[in-house]
Amino acid sequence: MEDNEKKYDNKYLLERQLEMIKIFYERKLLTKEQYEYEVRTLTTRIKTDEKKDS
Hints:
The protein has helices at residues 10-26, 32-45. By secondary structure, it is mainly alpha-helical.
């Protein structure tokens, strides 16, 4: 891996996605239902270290 390449983990990517959909919701680009659906979908589908399956 080159020095300027960064490796992002799933937790970081999830946080970034959640921030982005929050911005969309705040700017009225998503309804409350759409926002809640996206949050639920992202948090259940993206596996982070905290939610590893045993």
